[in-house]
Amino acid sequence: MSRIILEVHVLQNVPPSNLNRDDTGTPKSAVYGGVTRARVSSQAWKRATRRYFTKLLDAGELGVRTKRVAEVLAERITARAPAVVGPAAWEIAAEVLQAATGSKVEPPKRKADSAKKKGAEEPAPESSYLMFLSSRQLDGLAELAVQGAADIKGFLKDKDNKARAKRIADTRHSVDIALFGRMVADSPDINVDAATQVAHALSVHQVSNESDYFTAVDDRNSGAEPGAGMIGTVDFNSATLYRYAAVDVDLLERNLGKGLDAEESPTTPVRRAVEAFVEGFVASLPTGKINTFGNHTLPDAVVVTLRSSRPVSFVSAFEKPVVADEFGGHMETACARLADYIPEIERAYGDESTDTWLLRIGPATQKVSGLGTEVPSLKRLVDVAGAAVADRLERRG
After folding, report:
1. Which of 197, 254, 303, 371 is positioned for an S-S bond with 9, CB 3.0–4.6 A?
2. What is the pTM of this model?
3. Which stretches within 119-196 are classed as H helix?
4. What's residue 279's pLDDT?
């Protein structure tokens, strides 16, 4: 049975920046093709994409990932039952969350001990790891909590009520959970397999991290105190990045389910998620040190591919690092590499059902112009990709 795989390939220039730093504050790197490359982790770009979703989708279509999930649920309980507020709401929320996920939700010991010493109120319960729940799941759990608020422990001793809590946490996944997945360590049966795989972004060329020595002047310094108020260093690099992500549309459909509204096409949830992902992944940018470097760039070239076999990254086109010529610049050579590599790998491993669309800007990207159907804008790219995915789903039935 053929699959539906959507891929996004991006070439993007990033000037001096530190998008994603390691534990020493240095921009992350990796050795590929025998040389050191700039690297931005997949986790960093997935978070940037999820944050971008807030510009594209209603809050009700998204989820929240936090240890402070009891507070989030308690707010919804109080909104439905104003008499249940504060610590009482936290306790009810914690009990419902434990029933739904099997995870302990209790006040963190260190915070609780500190509060006790100070004679302060016990802090709100927290989960021991980040818990990812959709807005609709939280609403469902809040409704259940209100029903059992009078005696929540007794209410959840009922097997049917406990099963309802678990079922609510495992249905109506949000777009971000369906795309990026969810792991519940204490209850693996409600895990959600990620429909999206995001590669670590790599520079197409060799890089060396640099260090910026800076001084800051104290505005209140007098003429007799001319020295700097502080000094420090910030590490950075510049890169032309190859970014890649693939969406397993079949798994995305299983995670999201089909449209429930009679007036809505069954493919609508998947189409909306795919469109949000394409726009979010292309246009987002991790915010590491963004105030220091102001590195607000957008991709020069985007290739979107819809295929029916398996995901294919084009990173091998850059296994031999790109070297700038005497005039400088990596983008033009990187595009030439893709223009040579993609037809070769598609000839060898592709299939006739592969569709490719291309968004590009500037003369440096001229070489990739023949790789697919050119579109004039990101909006148009998003529309055609979403429509093509919906069409394949409908034809398959």
Report:
1. 303
2. 0.93
3. 135-147, 152-157, 159-169, 175-180
4. 98
Average pLDDT of the residues of the chain: 94
pLDDT digits 0-9 by tens, 230-268: 899 999 999 999 999 999 999 999 999 876 666 778 899
- Whole-angstrom distance, CA of residue 190 vs CA of residue 184: 7
In 3D space, the residue among 212, 211, 288 whose CA is nearest the CA of residue 18 turns out to be 288
**Residues in a beta bridge with 248:** 5
* Residue 200: per-residue pLDDT: 98
Cα angle 185, 286, 281 (rounded to 5 degrees) comes to 80
Determine the angle formed by the axes of helices 268-283 and 249-256, rounding to 10 degrees: 120
* pLDDT tens sequence across 191-215: 999 999 999 999 999 999 999 999 9
Q: Is the distance from CB of 115 to CB of 121 less than 8 angstroms?
A: yes
CA distance 396 to 390: 10
**Shortest CA distance to 246 belongs to which of 317, 188, 196, 297?**
196
Is the model's pLDDT at 302 over the cut of 80? yes
CA–CA distances in Å: residue 381 to residues 75, 78, 206, 258, 357: 39, 43, 31, 23, 7
Q: Distance between CA 301 and CA 282 in Å, rounded?
A: 10
Q: Are strands 230-248 and 5-17 parallel, antiparallel or unpaired?
A: antiparallel
Burial class (CB in 10 A: 0-12, 13-18, 19+), 1: exposed
- Cα 185-189-190 angle, rounded to 5 deg: 75
C-alpha dihedral, 88 to 92 to 98 to 101, nearest 10°: -120
